[in-house]
From TrEMBL, chains A, B:
Its main location: cytoplasm. Belongs to the DtxR/MntR family. GO terms for cellular component: cytoplasm. It comes from Sediminibacterium ginsengisoli. This is Transcriptional regulator MntR. GO terms for molecular function: DNA binding; DNA-binding transcription factor activity; protein dimerization activity; transition metal ion binding.
Amino acid sequence: MILSNAEENYLKAIYALNLLGKERVNNQAIADKLTINPASVTDMVRKLDEKKLISYSRSEGARLTREGLRIASKTVRKHRLWETFLVEKLNFTWDEVHDVAEQLEHIQSDKLLDEIDKLLGHPKFDPHGDPIPDANGKMTRIHSTPLSEIKEGSKVKVVSVGDNSAAFLRYLDKQGISLNGILVVKEIQSFDQSLLVEIKGKKEVFLSTEACKKIFVV
Amino acid sequence: MILSNAEENYLKAIYALNLLGKERVNNQAIADKLTINPASVTDMVRKLDEKKLISYSRSEGARLTREGLRIASKTVRKHRLWETFLVEKLNFTWDEVHDVAEQLEHIQSDKLLDEIDKLLGHPKFDPHGDPIPDANGKMTRIHSTPLSEIKEGSKVKVVSVGDNSAAFLRYLDKQGISLNGILVVKEIQSFDQSLLVEIKGKKEVFLSTEACKKIFVV
DNA sequence: TATCAAATTTAGGCAAAGCTAAATATTTGA
DNA sequence: TCAAATATTTAGCTTTGCCTAAATTTGATA
Ligand SMILES: [Mn+2]
Ligand SMILES: [Mn+2]
Ligand SMILES: [Mn+2]
Ligand SMILES: [Mn+2]
């Protein structure tokens, strides 16, 4: 079955919300995620239900069927493999890849996907530290913690970021924070919970609570 | 200006027809090229004219404006660079690339295009022997001849093919004909103009007139 | 339990890109 | 020159995916 970009985006949104813990996904959440009007979501979930890609009911909300899950995770796989490809092979930076990958993830070609995967050596994580589902939809789950919940004095490693926007990623670049970077939490400011962080042997920077919530560490 | 896939495809079709010698392109020709109904073409050429990408009049037909030409040749450039990339870097065969390139040519990212071009070493020709326009739309023109017009006894080199369909390309594979292959025209059958051709030191094959019209040689 | 807020759906519309069938133009060529 | 063939346009319709505004439903809470 060939799906439209819109349909794939809805499935991906539901998939992402599922992973965030909500196994029942309501229309409002999908609408927020995709920045689409709830009335439009009503139409689309109905269509996806008819196509048996989700099961939807007013009370239960939406949940992916086995087939819907397969397509959603394949789309995420494509997105993250393309992002990795762009960074590894085409000199893109991590703040430049998301928008292009949003387009590339809809290209239909199994061979293309397989060959990109092979060329990259079957990577397990994308440039933002997000796990890449394998061909069966399975992916490595890392139990990380937001930097905002780390105790004073702890030494941690950055494993992923919770915001792929160019603005946020460039802010991190500016602060000197990158994937796999080692941080030491020097001080937690009591009045606003912002952090004074030492970046492994380099410098000390202040990070807002907002930023710290989006930096995941182990 | 961001164009839809459909708009880009129309511009590309007009561009291709222009290169075939027809500088005035009529709706019927566009319709045939894109396998679209002429009534639909009327709507679209009107829109492209309003957007100043073509100039259209009932009597003159359609002709690309400078901007329309720029976009058309950029789209062709993308198509052919992607085809080349797929063959050179991802183990695709020449009969597998066209359909995927039809999708990839619509991805919007100048950086992506430039990096692919750089990775490939600024190739001048695609896997079907078609010239790749450079960033300014200029491309190498090779004055080739259809094999169907070659005299008996001549020794020629295959430089391009006039049909990118998987069916035709696999037929050529089967016959042992490939780009840059050397052929000697042994005999022209008088009753149907089909050719007996020797493939450089390998074997002799019969080629139908139809096939010979689509094989370009120097 | 009555009320208010949030979520969902209905109703009606719009733009893009296609279609068919019928009406008009334009060419061609007998 | 005029009829037939070809090309173009009009009119009206379809699907997809979105929108706003106005119900309606559900659910929390006072
Ligand atoms: Mn992304
Ligand atoms: Mn990512
Ligand atoms: Mn092609
Ligand atoms: Mn080609």
